[in-house]
Amino acid sequence: RVLEAELGKERIRLETELGARGDFVDDLISGHYGSVELLLQRARYLGADLTDGALVMVVDIDDFARYLARRRPKEPAIQELKRRLADAVRLQTRQTFSNFLLGPRSDNVILFLGCAEGEDPEELPEKAQLLAKGVQRYVKGLLPDLTISVGIGSYKKDPAQLPEAYSEARVALEIGHRIHGPSSVSNFGRTGTYKLLFRVLQENPEELEAFYGETLEPVVHYDSRYGTELVQTLITYLGNDASTVRTAGDLFAHRHTIRYRLDRVGELAGLDVDKSEDRERLTLGIKAMQLLGRVPDKPSSFSDR
Q: CA angle, 7 as apex, 3 and 13 as ends, to 5°?
């Protein structure tokens, strides 16, 4: 009974600490932290020095609502699951970072990763990338029914920019979900034009829909109707710097077959794959397609109709 009582006290202490960290995270990312000095003071109280800024990482449970609908756990079990996730992330983070602050938020775990004394801030993104992969592996072993995705923002030297760093991590997470699906790791600094198109999607989705309609939509519809592989051929072709030979090798097809497919893409999209400016539009069209979730809905059959 004495042991049970002590364990109960420890559980209460941990839950109180997580609550305090969660409150801090909510205030920080919403910008309701008062002054920067107060922000830094609260962070120090929670064990992190954010004087020189930080990089933000968001760890998210994939399709958590679907998981809950399928398993229908009671609320105590849900909270225990979230606590175990937070503990797993904390354990892995301690192996890589000595200066960090962790806080739970809904089905996310938010990490503020700061530099240790004398550490180069330019090393943080790569360390965060390795940490994200390590967390995914660890959680897969600990909670095999769940997968997690991670979004990583860029390093912000000014603590007042940490809300922006969080927003970047959220954008990276969402882009990763849309492009790669579950178990993705996406770094805001490496999302290129995806982040620009995602901003258009957020602010003016009709504009992105219209651009998609002018470029890839006819090709996607054709693939869906006939079970062809025009979209994948185009993606492979553009990824191979417009080389039909390398594209043919990657897709195990004759280069004349690849040429036929590319000509068909050009006819459907009204663009010439041999012109660099048209290839740029097709590249953006592919990214718009991915962000909108409009991939062909039939399995590929390599038909060359």
A: 145
Angstrom distance (rounded) from CA 109 to CA 25 = 10
Alpha carbon distance 278, 270 (integer Å): 9
Could you tell me the CA-to-CA distances from 234 to 21, 209, 213, 284 in Å, in that order? 47, 20, 16, 12
Mean pLDDT of 140-162: 95
- Bridge partner residues of 71 (DSSP): none
Domains for the chain: give ranges and CATH numbers: 2-191 (3.30.70.1230), 203-292 (1.10.10.2840)
Q: Give CA–CA dist 256/13, Å, rounded.
A: 68
Measured at the CA of 226, the angle between CA 194 and CA 198, to 5 degrees, comes to 10
Contact 91, 138 (CB under 8 A): yes
C-alpha span between 88 and 93 (Å, rounded): 9
Give SS3 for 219.
Answer: helix
Contact between 26 and 84 (Cβ < 8 Å): no
d(CA 222, CA 245): 24
Which one, of 188, 183, 214, 215, lies nearest residue 199 by Cα? 188
pLDDT in tens, 180-213: 999 999 999 999 999 999 999 999 999 999 999 9
Other Cβ atoms closer than 10 A to 154: 18
CA 145-149-151 angle, to 5 degrees, is: 160
253-300 residue pLDDT tens = 999 999 999 999 999 999 999 999 999 999 999 999 999 999 887 543
